[in-house]
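Case study B.
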Amino acid sequence: MNNFEFKNPTKIIFGKDTIEKIATEIPENAKVLVLYGGGSIKKNGVYNQVKAALSQFETVEFGGIPANPEYAVLMEALKVIKDENITYLLAVGGGSVIDGTKFLSSAALFEGETPWDILTKNIRTEKGMPFGTVLTLPATGSEMNSGAVITRAETQEKLAMGGPGLFPEFSVLDPKVIASIPERQLANGITDAFTHVLEQYMTYPIGASLQDRFAESILQTLIEVAPKVLKDPTDYTATADFMWSCTMALNGLIQKGVPTDWAVHAIGHELTALFGIDHARTLAVIAPSHYKFNFEAKKEKLAQYGERVWNITEGSLDEKAHAAIERTEAFFNELGIDTKLSDYTKDYNGTAEKIAQRFTDRGWVALGEHQTLSPDKVEKIVKMAY
Amino acid sequence: MNNFEFKNPTKIIFGKDTIEKIATEIPENAKVLVLYGGGSIKKNGVYNQVKAALSQFETVEFGGIPANPEYAVLMEALKVIKDENITYLLAVGGGSVIDGTKFLSSAALFEGETPWDILTKNIRTEKGMPFGTVLTLPATGSEMNSGAVITRAETQEKLAMGGPGLFPEFSVLDPKVIASIPERQLANGITDAFTHVLEQYMTYPIGASLQDRFAESILQTLIEVAPKVLKDPTDYTATADFMWSCTMALNGLIQKGVPTDWAVHAIGHELTALFGIDHARTLAVIAPSHYKFNFEAKKEKLAQYGERVWNITEGSLDEKAHAAIERTEAFFNELGIDTKLSDYTKDYNGTAEKIAQRFTDRGWVALGEHQTLSPDKVEKIVKMAY
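Model:
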């Protein structure tokens, strides 16, 4: 096991009818900016629950944060924070709204020239404006971690930020919100969480038995509940397992002490930036090709995953590892998620070269747990995913 | 899944040669009381590492905290805290030293009549004197939770305390400290952590798939590493897995959203109070009888545990559940841990009645996940363990 440090101070409030509890988590004298997305919270009752809980607070609202939270929109919200002397942020939404709120938490107290620097100069946020979240879409894990990904349409860029100041103070996870989520987004959420685990697990054996088993536990649970959640999103038991699994998939725990990859995300982000493909779907496009291309480096873990998660007991180590990749792709397909770039766009020619060039331009020399995936290898992986 | 709240703000610093990092975790102007036990830290090098790390701090020492931290000894340490105007506590030891430090953290700021009230009146500690820990014996999980158990020899009592103010600010976990731990204590640590998981898992199915799998992951890892750790406590990979498993076994995570039992601990504490038997060994004495006595209520989970953790695939549900109890008792025996009270004392007659009476006197009407274990049933369980 590698040396590690772990601290995650976010308070999780989990369960049915818990949204009202935000009132006791936010400081009494706070002036709260309530941030949300396209307005689905006004249809599913979450908005009303939040409003009722905040009736004793001075609040301002900012809706319309898009999927892949857009820098230009967030800069409008930042203006509201300054103009209205906001002291507390409340994200009500999925990963995009929460990530956007993290950017605002950081930008609100940022003293540099432009908040864009936070993203391009990798400025770690030690202290942000305090914020909480009400999660409406399980997927990204942003509700219990300190990272965010922000998009800038103008430059077709999607960049990451983070720091210990960006943990939510609290996050409310009420699985009942899942009942009104469209099937497409549920499938995305399952795929996103599943791939988060793979990024922290599908590397090489390092003897961290507990982290391996925790990762496998999340994968097994997602596989078990996926058909139930898609069939009946009012199945409370299944949706609760799903929601908690998504949070545990990316709250820092399973990545501690082990090598991590994240190449699938790095490449996938480019597909979202270039084509607007749903984040989760870009992961399902890239992951199988990535594992095939890096087969020799990852085959021990692929075989272990095949055995423990998919009960693949027959064949040599190589055969089990290959079967595990196939089973993973089939799982995404069973969720209704296509796994080839050509399923999403006819305009895919030249994409591999373009992404490789963008990585080169940005100075990203090499990706992956061994830092050996140079832009020319990324190009090959993307081509395999056409 | 039941509703739950989860927050664990302790910072874990894990890995080889990490003790020096305490210097950057303690506030610069702190006056530190370093607490330890019988002095083993002076033989294994930990004391020198701590002293070197704290060379820039004003420190006072208090050694001699015994296993099952004794109230009278802690009251002496409390006097030192007051007389010396201590502002920060550093526990260097195992669960007993850390639990004792938690009591002192609470008692140092306690404004009631006598600190004994914290234990007898179930006073929850919202804020204590800040403290960190350097763990020297993996077992209790106290390094990452907010609970403690304190013993008072005078009245043969062992009582619990806790509260959100009692999380360590940081805990340093260097698996290299395990190299010098005697085999007896290593076996105790494995047994203690294993039973902690059972207390939070061996109840009844509630459909919390992820918590079940996490619990099983810890059990599987402990089973895997136990023979390696006992054979060669310098095996870094195995000791690191062991150390992290003990912490995860009782840091709150696996008990969230599920029913918990804790009857084994409640009864076991009495055996320590009455006979001075090592805490872990009392658990190994009580657990098998407890599961046999409550077989009908627990058999679904017993069978699931048998299948997933011990690969017991043959037989009916009842047969698997019985086999799982037998396998658990055999596991304790393989660690060199006896599982009958008569293995520890010839003076066991009347123990069951005495413990039942103590529970009755203390007003403990019923134990267990269903709160149905009345003192007369406890009496039967203890008799089965003779």
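Chain A touches chain B at residues 1-16, 18, 175, 207-210, 213-214, 216-218, 220-221, 224-225, 237, 240-241, 244-245, 248, 256-257 (CB under 8 Å). The remaining cases will be described in the next quarterly update.
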